[in-house]
Write a structure and sequence with these properties.
The protein is built from 11 helices and 7 strands. The protein is globular, with a radius of gyration of 20 Å. The model has no long low-confidence stretch (mean pLDDT 94).
Length: 290
């Protein structure tokens, strides 16, 4: 009976179009902003660095503008800008994020002058003049808005020969969470007040590459892979996924900080014998050939 009630409520929310929105995403990341570096980037930053090192080498080798203007969209805690600044002197930075908490962390983490702007990616890009930047970087966030619209706007905003570096999760990321999520929702249907749409993550590296090629970018390098987080117990696992932004948006569909919901998650992971979380990702560096 509870399953039928749960399904009925989900259908009702769907028909009334009560979807999560960008404000929910912003709130999700603000909530985890203070723990984001220690819990997520502490391990995942190696993939950011891998991408950024390739970007920096390419930029320097091609002797592009020695004082590049860098746009860091969905900047999070400012890791990308801080890393680029350590490798390319005389760069100027604009950091944009929809989460006030993340921007505050970025301001704390950066010791150099930069412009910080609270806005979503698409709105800010559309406000910019054509040919405004030499480098644009976006980490783990292009899927929160229409990727095609973002890439189109970046093509306009980037100077010809400029570079766009992006890292994002693949569609089949977090397979362990997907195994328990439907049951979690149905078991706690009374706490569900919104629907989270499936995010437009790329299916694989070929799909990802085509996104950019359609907007006059040429591929410099693309690489995919996965990273497995392993935990001693399911309680630690649940603490991780609810404190890193991994479920941003989904935690507005159902409150992941609710103790009953957390208990349900722990029980469901225990039943499946799951003690790992797998992030599947792809990163790419693209040159603007407009």
């Amino acid at each position: 009976m509870s399953i039928l009630k749960g399904l009925f409520k989900i259908i009702k929310l769907f028909l009334s179009k009560k979807y999560t929105n960008l404000n929910d995403i912003a709130n999700s990341y603000t909530r985890v902003s203070k723990s984001y570096n220690d819990l997520f980037l502490k391990e995942m930053q190696k993939y950011n660095k891998e991408m950024l090192d390739k970007l920096i080498i390419r930029y320097i080798d091609n002797k592009v503008n020695s004082s590049p203007k860098v746009l860091d969209i969905a900047c999070g805690t400012g890791f990308n800008s801080k890393y680029i600044n350590s490798k390319i002197n005389n760069s100027s930075f604009t950091l944009v994020d929809i989460s006030e908490g993340m921007l505050n962390e970025a301001k704390k983490n950066l010791s150099f002058n930069a412009e910080f702007i609270k806005n979503d990616m698409v709105s800010y890009l559309k406000s910019l003049k054509t040919d405004s930047f030499d480098i644009v970087v976006c980490s783990w966030a292009i899927k929160y808005q229409n990727p095609h619209e973002i890439i189109k706007e970046v093509s306009r905003v980037l100077k010809k020969g400029g570079y766009f570096a992006v890292i994002v999760n693949l569609k089949d990321t977090l397979p362990e969470v997907r195994k328990i999520y439907p049951k979690l929702i149905l078991k706690n249907y009374s706490k569900v007040n919104k629907i989270m749409k499936e995010l437009p993550n790329p299916i694989h590296h070929k799909t990802f590459t085509r996104w950019f090629e359609k907007e006059s970018f040429s591929k410099i390098e693309v690489k995919d892979g996965s990273h497995v987080f392993t935990f001693d117990d399911t309680q630690s696992l649940v603490s991780f996924v609810t404190s890193t932004g991994a479920l941003a948006g989904f935690d507005a569909m159902i409150d992941m900080t609710d103790e009953e919901v957390k208990s349900s998650m722990i029980k469901l992971f225990d039943e499946k014998g799951i003690k790992t979380i797998t992030h599947k990702y792809v990163w790419g560096i693209f040159k603007n050939d407009k």
